[in-house]
Design a protein that fits this description.
It contains two helices and nine strands. The protein is of the alpha+beta class.
């Protein structure tokens, strides 16, 4: 390889690295701006109550994410709602508690729940045969969001869907 080709290749590689870095920075800026816009809409989430009754049913699985209702691909990025994580979903007479690994728990009061259903696609994730449990609920700010959960054993969804009716 002659020195002209080597220098040209190094310049091309440097420009490519800089271009990739700029694209990543623009993506991160877009994520932060979306989070700021959504934070104004969402406000604060309901706090987890100090005491609740006995859990009627519990599922282990993955928190898929939350989306702005009715758009199932408009992912909520405000706070830590945009991050997928392992989770435990528990149903109480007072509401639903979603305890996530390395993230704040999400409390959904019973009075805020609009519907519980299954979805095949949510927040950019695809599951087989309606494998995502979607909980549509109204935040204190009045905004409706869908919170998605994919259980390890999807056969246990029936109890969740019957309880919501």
């Amino acid at each position: 390889m002659n020195s002209g080709t080597l220098v040209g290749s190094l310049i091309f590689a440097a420009v490519l690295v800089v271009a990739i870095a700029v694209v990543i920075q623009v993506m991160m800026l877009g994520w932060r701006r979306r989070a700021q816009r959504q934070q104004e809409l969402i406000g604060t989430l309901p706090p987890v109550p100090d005491e609740v009754g006995t859990a009627t049913t519990t599922l282990r699985g993955v928190y898929v994410g939350s989306t702005m209702a009715p758009e199932r691909n408009e992912r909520v990025t405000a706070g830590d709602l945009g991050y997928r994580s392992k989770a435990v979903l528990s149903r109480y007479p007072e509401g639903i508690l979603l305890e996530r690994v390395r993230a704040n728990p999400i409390w959904i009061p019973q009075s805020a729940i609009i519907e519980v259903r299954t979805e095949r696609v949510m927040a950019g994730k695809v599951a087989a045969r309606s494998g995502i449990l979607a909980i549509r609920w109204r935040l204190p700010s009045g905004v409706e969001i869908d919170t998605g959960f994919r259980a390890g054993n999807r056969d246990n969804y029936d109890g969740w869907l019957e309880d919501a009716a």
